[in-house]
Amino acid sequence: MWDVLNVIGTIAFALSGVLVAMEEKYDLMGIYILGFITAFGGGAVRNLLIGVPVSELWEQGTLFTVAFAVMTLAFVFPKVVRWTLLRRGVFFDAIGLGAFSVQGAMYAYSMGLPLSASIAAAALTGTGGGMIRDVLAGRKPLFLQKDIYIAWTLIPGVIVGTGWLTASWQLLLIVMAVVIMRLFASYFGWKLPIRTVSYHT
Questions:
Q1: Measured between alpha carbons, how far is 179 from 94 in angstroms, rounded to an integer?
Q2: 13-to-53, 62, 157, 170, 200 alpha-carbon distances in Å
Q3: Per the database record, which ranges form the Glycine transporter domain (predicted)?
Q4: Backbone angles phi, psi at 147, to 5 degrees
């Protein structure tokens, strides 16, 4: 199940990075860089937080190959990929968020870390890559916008972190729950409350 989540999240976020790079008119190298950062940045940030050597990322040769292949296809067939992502971009993003947040929570739980670490690992793995992507692209990070985004990572963070549901089929259900809630939030325009302050002189 761990490997499946890795592959799903890697493909989804690599494509997400490709879309942003294309929208910003990046060249081939820029597409690869932004795609790799989006796909693997969250895991790197998570590893730094919970004390795992970042060098472990370089042992994921298969995932790097998968990401490279996906991004190459996106560059060769940009119109098809762009059309697909524009229509289903939120769907891919939701899949990546669900898969990586569950994977992050499982990573912390398997190390015997406390609940707070599982919650943080879920949030960082699920949103870290996208955050770095948006900053490099000069955009406001998605999780800082009004859309409910990072809040959905609390679902796997709490459930997995407490050891309540950890079987493979249960993890899949959690992924599906995050994906569905993210899609519902996007479709129905669910927002978190905001407050603004204005100063009059």
A1: 5
A2: 22, 16, 20, 23, 43
A3: 4-77, 91-160
A4: -60, 145
Output the six-digit token pair for 149: 């985004």
Q: Which amino acid is at 60?
A: Q
Rounded to whole angstroms, the Cα distance separating 2 from 171 reads 9
Rounded to whole angstroms, the Cα distance separating 23 from 189 reads 23
The span from the CA of 118 to the CA of 128, in Å, is 15
Q: Over 80: is that where the pLDDT of 29 sits?
A: yes
75 falls in which pLDDT band (50, 70, 90)? confident
The structure tokens 């592959």 sit at: 7
Is the pTM value of this prediction over 0.85? no
Instruction: Count CA atoms within 13 Å of residue 114 on its CB side.
Output: 1
Q: Which two tokens stand for residue 161?
A: 């972190």
Question: Which residues are 147's β-sheet partners?
Answer: 191
In the chain, count H helices and then E strands: 7, 0
Q: Are 34 and 137 in contact (CB under 8 A)?
A: yes
